[in-house]
Design brief:
Elements: H1 2-10, E1 15-20, E2 23-27, H2 28-38, E3 43-47, E4 50-58, H3 62-71, E5 76-81, E6 94-100, E7 119-124, E8 129-135, E9 140-146, H4 148-158, E10 162-166, H5 170-177, E11 183-186, H6 193-204, H7 218-233, E12 246-247, E13 255-256, H8 258-263, H9 277-281, H10 287-298, H11 304-319, H12 321-332, H13 337-346, H14 351-373, H15 377-384, H16 390-399, H17 420-430, H18 432-447, E14 453-457, E15 461-467, E16 479-483, E17 487-491, H19 493-524, H20 528-554, E18 560-562, E19 567-572, E20 590-594, E21 601-605, H21 612-628, E22 636-640, E23 644-649, H22 661-673, E24 680-685, H23 693-709, E25 715-720, H24 728-731, E26 735-745, E27 748-757, H25 765-771, H26 776-792, H27 795-811, H28 819-830, H29 838-859
Parallel strand pairs: 1-5, 7-10, 9-12, 10-11, 13-23, 18-22, 21-25, 21-26, 23-24, 24-25
Antiparallel strand pairs: 1-2, 2-4, 3-4, 5-6, 7-8, 8-9, 14-15, 15-17, 16-17, 19-20, 19-22, 26-27
C-alpha cells in the first residue's frame, strides 16, 4: 500500500490501475468510481490497518474495461510490474507505463474508425486566442489563432475529446465556451511562449518554425507546445509520426459560425434520431476517407480553382463507372493506414496488425496502376503521389508469418526460413513427439516390457510409466519418482537431458521472436512518412469516389463555379429531406436566383409547414456541397463562390445559459449584421417572432433595410410570417417578394411547396392547428378572434405607418426653413464620401455638432 500511495500521489487526478499478480486493482475513491462505471463488485480490505475500498478485474480484460473508463471521461494511469516476480525476493518494482486520457488514446476499442480523436488546447493571449488540435492516433497536428468566435467555431468543428486550459483562465474559459468540453486544467507555467517554442523545435528537430508557416502565430505556438508537452506528461515519448504542424488557414475556407453549423445539421443534430448531412453524403469506404470527409464538411473551400479540380475528378468518375467500382473495391480492402503506421511509431503494433498493414499496402499497387491509366490529369496527379513501399512489403512478407497472432507470446510470429537459429529451436521443440516415440520403441525392445508409456506432468516433467505386473523387468539405472496404485513412474538421464533441451528451446523461441519483431518495428519506422502520404492520398480519392457514387445514386449535377457574385440554382432540392420522403412522394424542387444588382434580398412569405425553412437550408447546403467539391441536388447550378454563410433559424432556446429566446435571437442576428461581406449568404428565418407582433415587425423591417443599404449588399433569404414586410419591395429596389404557394379548398389547405413571385396574403396558422388535431371548439374560437382582430388592426394601417416613418426619417432633418440647417445640408451634400478618411469624417461630424451646439446656446 505504501508503494501504491507513492505512485498515486504522482497522478492525483488520474484513476490508477495497479497491477497485482494477474489483476489490475483500484483502491479508495478510484475503486468507488471504477465499480460504478464498469459495473464490477466493490469490496473492502484491511490494507495497512485501514479499511480500504477495493475493485479489480483480470489483467487480460484490460481492453474490455479501459475503453469504458476513458469514454466516461476518466484519465487512467496504468501501473505495471516492471520486473519478473520470480526474479526478486523483495516487493516487485512497479511504475506507470502509460496514462490514457480521453484525448490521448491508441487503443482501437476507444477510437472510432471514421472520427478523429483530438486532444486540443486553448491559450488565452492578450488580444487573441490560440488553439491547437492533435490526434496521436493519426499524427495530425493543427493550429490556428483568432477571436473567441473563431476559436469557438473551430472547437465545434473539430469536437476534441479532451481540452487543455490554463488553471489561471478557468473562469474565462467557462464564460466563453461553457461546459461542452471535457477539460483538463494545467499549470500556468506550461503556457509560456519560449517554453512552447523549445518543446516544438526540439520535437521537430528544427531551429525555427518558419518551415511550417506558423512562426507568426504566437498564441497558436503556445497552444501547440502545451499539447506536445501533455503527451510527454502522459508517458508518450515515441512520436515520430507527428512530423509536421499545419496552420488551419481560415481565409481559404467558408466561414460559418457555430449557430450555422448547428442550424444546418451538418454532422450533429439536437434531435437524437435526426439524419444529418454527413449521414447522407458519406459514401467513403476507408476510415481515412471518413475522417477527411468530416474535415471537408467543416472547412469548405473558397479557392475556385481547387474546387474545380475536385469537380473534374468527380465528373470523370461519374462517367467511368467500372473505374469507380474498382477503386472503391480496392479501398474497401485497406485497413486504417494512418492509425497502423502511428502504432508502428509508438511501438504499440502487434504482429497481426503488421500483416494487415502489408495487405493494405498491397491493395495500393493495383489501385495506383488503375489511376495512372486514366486520362484525367487531376486523378493521375493523385496516383503519382502514391508510394508502393515495395521494400517494406517484401520485408514483412519475408519475416512475419501470414497467420501471425495478436499476442506475440501466443503463437508463431516469425515466418519459417527467416532465422536459422529459430528454425533449429522450433525443430527441437516441436519434433519432440518423434524423438519420444523412438525412445519408447528402443526401451520396450531393451526391457521386454510391452506396456511402457512416456508422458509428462507439471510436477515431475517427463517420466516413464510401468505397470506393477512388469515391475521386476525395470533396469537398475532408472530412478523411481512416484508410486501409484497399479503402476510406478521412473525417470532416466536421457529423459532429463531431453526435457531441459525442450524447455530451454521454448523459452529461447519466445525471446528470439520478440527480439526479431522489435527489430522489425524499428526498421519499419523509416517508412512512416511515405505510408502517411499514401493514407492522405487514399483519403482524398475515397472522398471523391464517394461524391461520384452520391451523384450517381441521387441524380446530382456538376455546379458551375466562378468568381461572380450570383447564385442561380435551377430545380434545387434539399439533400437530406428528399431521402426521407415516404415512398412514391417526390421532392418539390425550386428555382432560386440571388445577386447583388437586382435581386439581393428575397422575402419569402407563406404559412407554417409550407417549406420556407427547407428552402432556406437547401440553398445553404447546395452552396456548401458545391464548395466541398461535390455535385449538387439540382438540374443546374451556377454559383459565385461564397465566403461566409450566416443562418438565424427559429428560436433556439438558450435558457440554460440564463438568456431568453429573444435575447439569443438578437445576439445572433447582431453578430451577422456586424460581420457582413460582399460574398456573404445570409439566411434569416422568422426573425423577431420572439417578441410582440409590432416589435417583431419593426425589428424585421429595420434589419431588412440595414441589409439592403449596407455597402456589402449581402445576398439574403428572409423567410417571415409578417406579410407587412411585403410592402418593402415598393421602396427598396433590390428586395423582391416570393411566397411558398398554397391551395385553399373550402376549409382545407394544400401545401404545394412551390416558390412563386409575389407576397402571400395571409397566414394559415388556424388551418395548421386543425390539421394537428386541435379540438374543434379551439379552432372555432380562434377563427372568431381572428375576424375581430383583422377588423381592428388592418395591416394596411400598420404598413402606412411604417411607410410614413420611412419618409419621416428621410425628411425630418431638412424640413425647417433654418439657414443653419441649410448650411449643414449644403456641407453634407458637398462631401465626397469615397475619398473621406475615418478621421476626417469624425472631424466633420464634430464641426456639425459644434454648429448645432452654438444654435442651442443662442436659442436658450
Amino acid at each position: 500500500m505504501q508503494q501504491y500511495n507513492t505512485i498515486k500521489t504522482k497522478y492525483p487526478d488520474a484513476l490508477l490501475l495497479f497491477r497485482v499478480g494477474d489483476f489490475y486493482e483500484t483502491f479508495g475513491e478510484d475503486a468507488v468510481k471504477a465499480a460504478k462505471i464498469l459495473g464490477i463488485i466493490l469490496t473492502h480490505r484491511n490494507n495497512g490497518g485501514d479499511k480500504t475500498e477495493l475493485a479489480g478485474f483480470p489483467h487480460h480484460s484490460l481492453n474490455t474495461y479501459l475503453p469504458k473508463l476513458v469514454k466516461a471521461g476518466q484519465r487512467v494511469a496504468i501501473c505495471d510490474q516492471l520486473e519478473d516476480p520470480k526474479q526478486t525476493k523483495t516487493i516487485v518494482k512497479r511504475g506507470v507505463t502509460e496514462l490514457v486520457t480521453p484525448g490521448v488514446a491508441l487503443n482501437d476499442d476507444i477510437l472510432q474508425a471514421k472520427t478523429n480523436n483530438f486532444l486540443a488546447s486553448v491559450h488565452f493571449g492578450n488580444k487573441r486566442l490560440g488553439v491547437s488540435f492533435l490526434d496521436i492516433s493519426t499524427g495530425e497536428f493543427l493550429t490556428a489563432q483568432g477571436s473567441e468566435e473563431q476559436i469557438d467555431k473551430l472547437l465545434q468543428n473539430f469536437a476534441p475529446n479532451e481540452l487543455l486550459v490554463s488553471k489561471a483562465y478557468k473562469k474565462d474559459f467557462s464564460e466563453v465556451f461553457g461546459d461542452r468540453f471535457h477539460t483538463f486544467f494545467m499549470e500556468d507555467w506550461v503556457f509560456q511562449e519560449d517554453f512552447a517554442l523549445e518543446t516544438l523545435t526540439r520535437h521537430f528537430k528544427t531551429k525555427t518554425l518558419k518551415g511550417f508557416g506558423i512562426d507568426h502565430l504566437q498564441q497558436g505556438i503556445v497552444a501547440s507546445g502545451v499539447v506536445l508537452h501533455y503527451l510527454s506528461e502522459t508517458r508518450h515519448s515515441q512520436l515520430q509520426h507527428i512530423g509536421r504542424l499545419s496552420r488551419i488557414a481560415e481565409e481559404d475556407h467558408i466561414w460559418m459560425d457555430r449557430f450555422t453549423i448547428r442550424n444546418l445539421e451538418l454532422y450533429q443534430s439536437s434531435n437524437s434520431n435526426a439524419i444529418t448531412l454527413l449521414d447522407i453524403i458519406d459514401k467513403t469506404r476507408s476510415p481515412m476517407g471518413g475522417r477527411l470527409l468530416k474535415r471537408w464538411l467543416a472547412l469548405p473551400l473558397q479557392h475556385v480553382e481547387k474546387i474545380r479540380q475536385r469537380h473534374q475528378v468527380v465528373s470523370y468518375l461519374v462517367g467511368h463507372e467500372p473505374v469507380l467500382e474498382k477503386l472503391q473495391h480496392s479501398m474497401k480492402q485497406m485497413g486504417d493506414l494512418e492509425r497502423l503506421i502511428s502504432k508502428v511509431a509508438t511501438g504499440k503494433i502487434n504482429p497481426k496488425e503488421v500483416i494487415y498493414l502489408k495487405n493494405s499496402l498491397e491493395a495500393i499497387v493495383p489501385l495506383k496502376q488503375l489511376v495512372l491509366q486514366t486520362d484525367d490529369g487531376a486523378l493521375q496527379a493523385l496516383g503519382n503521389q502514391l508510394e508502393d513501399c515495395g521494400a517494406l512489403r517484401a520485408k514483412i512478407k519475408e519475416m512475419i508469418n501470414e497467420e501471425a497472432p495478436v499476442n506475440p507470446l501466443k503463437g508463431k510470429t516469425i515466418a519459417d526460413g527467416y532465422s536459422e537459429e529459430l528454425d533449429e529451436l522450433r525443430e527441437l521443440a516441436f519434433s519432440g513427439k518423434d524423438y519420444l516415440d523412438k525412445m519408447l520403441q528402443r526401451e520396450t525392445e531393451r526391457t521386454g516390457i510391452s506396456s511402457l508409456k512416456i508422458a509428462s506432468n507439471n510436477v515431475f516433467g517427463y517420466y516413464i510409466e510401468v505397470r506393477n505386473t512388469h515391475k521386476d523387468k525395470v533396469p537398475e539405472e532408472w530412478i523411481r519418482k512416484q508410486t501409484l496404485v497399479s503402476a510406478e513412474r521412473y525417470i532416466t538421464e536421457e529423459l532429463k537431458e531431453y526435457e531441459a533441451k525442450i524447455l530451454g528451446a521454448e523459452e529461447r523461441i519466445q525471446i528470439l521472436e520478440q527480439q526479431l519483431f522489435a527489430q522489425l518495428i524499428v526498421w519499419m519506422q523509416e517508412y512512416i512518412a511515405p505510408v502517411q502520404q499514401n493514407a492522405q492520398q487514399i483519403a482524398q480519392l475515397d472522398c471523391l469516389c464517394g461524391f461520384a457514387q452520391l451523384a450517381q445514386e441521387n441524380q446530382y449535377v456538376q455546379p458551375v463555379m466562378n468568381d461572380a457574385t450570383v447564385i442561380d440554382i435551377r430545380q434545387g432540392r434539399h439533400p437530406v429531406i428528399e431521402k426521407q420522403l415516404p415512398p412514391g412522394e417526390s421532392y418539390v424542387a425550386n428555382d432560386l436566383l440571388l445577386d447583388r444588382e437586382q435581386q439581393q434580398i428575397i422575402m419569402i412569405t407563406g404559412p407554417n409547414m409550407s417549406g420556407k425553412s427547407a428552402l432556406l437550408r437547401q440553398t445553404a447546403l447546395i452552396v456548401l456541397l458545391a464548395q466541398m467539391g461535390s455535385f449538387v441536388p439540382a438540374t443546374s447550378a451556377n454559383i459565385g463562390y461564397v465566403d461566409k454563410i450566416f443562418t438565424r433559424v427559429g428560436a433556439s432556446d438558450n435558457i440554460s445559459m440564463g438568456e431568453s429566446t429573444f435575447m439569443v435571437e438578437m445576439n445572433e442576428t447582431a453578430a451577422i449584421l456586424n460581420n457582413l461581406s460582399e460574398r456573404s449568404l445570409v439566411l434569416l428565418d422568422e426573425i423577431g417572432r420572439g417578441t410582440s407582433t409590432y416589435d417583431g415587425i419593426s425589428i424585421a423591417w429595420a434589419i431588412s433595410e440595414y441589409l439592403h443599404e449596407h455597402p456589402s449588399r449581402a445576398k439574403t433569404l428572409f423567410a417571415t410570417h409578417y406579410h407587412e414586410l411585403n410592402e418593402m419591395s415598393a421602396t427598396f429596389e433590390r428586395i423582391k417578394n416570393y411566397n411558398v404557394s398554397v391551395k385553399e379548398l373550402k376549409d382545407k389547405v394544400l401545401f404545394l411547396r412551390k416558390l412563386t413571385p409575389g407576397g402571400s396574403a395571409h397566414s394559415f396558422g388556424i388551418h395548421v392547428a386543425k390539421m394537428a388535431g386541435m379540438p374543434q371548439q379551439v379552432i372555432q374560437k380562434s377563427q372568431k378572434i381572428l375576424k375581430k382582430l383583422e377588423k381592428s388592426h388592418s395591416s394596411e394601417e400598420l404598413t402606412d405607418k411604417l411607410q410614413s416613418v420611412q419618409n419621416d426619417l428621410q425628411l425630418s432633418f431638412f424640413n425647417l426653413d433654418d439657414p443653419l440647417l441649410e448650411q449643414i445640408k449644403e456641407e453634407i451634400l458637398d462631401l465626397d464620401i469615397n475619398t473621406l478618411t475615418p478621421v476626417e469624417a469624425l472631424m466633420k461630424l464634430n464641426e456639425i455638432k459644434r454648429l448645432l451646439g452654438k444654435k442651442k446656446k443662442a436659442s436658450s
